[in-house]
Amino acid sequence: MSKPVFSKPALRRDELARVLIRRGLSGISESELSQKLQYINYYRLRGYTYPYQDNSHEESLFIDGISWETIWSDYVFDSELRILLFDGISRFEIALRSIVTQLMSEYKGPYWYTDKSLFLSEAKFRRDLQELKDAWNRSKDDFKNHFVENYNSGSLPPAWMIFETSTLGLVSKYFENLNKSLEPRTMIMRQFGFNRSSGKVFLSWIRQLTYIRNICAHHARLFSRRLTCSCIIPTNLEV
Fold it and tell me: pTM score, two decimals?
């Protein structure tokens, strides 16, 4: 069965405010709500009103007693939660990037990230290397421009430079693909309180933090969201 083509018209802010109030949202006037919708997209706000509506009903009527104060409290809480988490995850991201590049560079030199013998999967290695180069080429950072201006155009930058233009997700993919027998891999995990045998646990936390970090970075709703990935609870962190 073919799906219908989307054909709903665009509504003005005052019309959207009228829809919400007609559905039973109380505690705010139509003009005040219209003003809020100038800066908060209706579709974004829907993520916060949804839990308080009867979505089995065609009109998605609000549950009795639900006021704007409840919706706004959730919205503000979510905003503050993202700020706190993004700050904490940013510290972890910087630390992971720094530790990985430092220990691996000490072990195999500044261009270790181009050595396929260090990695479990050659296909993933080639994919990640290309992504790393692409991120470097897109960068407008001063240190990147300085390198390009002062060194051979075909030269790749050292690990501690190129990884500064990469994402937490890419750093984690590089780490995940490292051969498990490499001593620097174990040393990296020890820096975060994990031992050699808890690699899966550590990786599960990196994936979860990367996922949450991206939600926060794009200002998406985190509060009451069902996360699509899960992390393993560590049971033994003795180094």
Answer: 0.86
State the CB neighbour count (10 A cutoff) for residue 33: 23
Query: What is residue 237's predicted lDDT score, i.e. its pLDDT?
Result: 57
Tokens standing for 196?
């050699």
Contacts of 100 (CB under 8 A, 6+ apart): 163, 171, 174, 175, 188
* Residue 201 and residue 209 in contact, taking contact as beta carbons nearer than 8 Å: no
Q: Which two tokens stand for residue 8?
A: 């709903």
The alpha carbon torsion through 7, 12, 16, 17 (nearest 10 deg) reads 180
The model's pLDDT over 195-222, given as tens digits with 9 standing for 90+, comes to 888 888 999 999 999 999 999 999 999 9
Quick one: how far is CA 205 from the chain centroid?
A: 13
Q: Mind listing the pLDDT tens digit for each residue in 155-190?
A: 899 999 999 999 999 999 999 999 999 999 999 999
- Judge contact between 214 and 207, C-beta under 8 A: no
**H-helix segments, the chain:** 13-22, 30-39, 42-49, 68-108, 122-138, 142-150, 159-162, 168-177, 183-191, 199-217
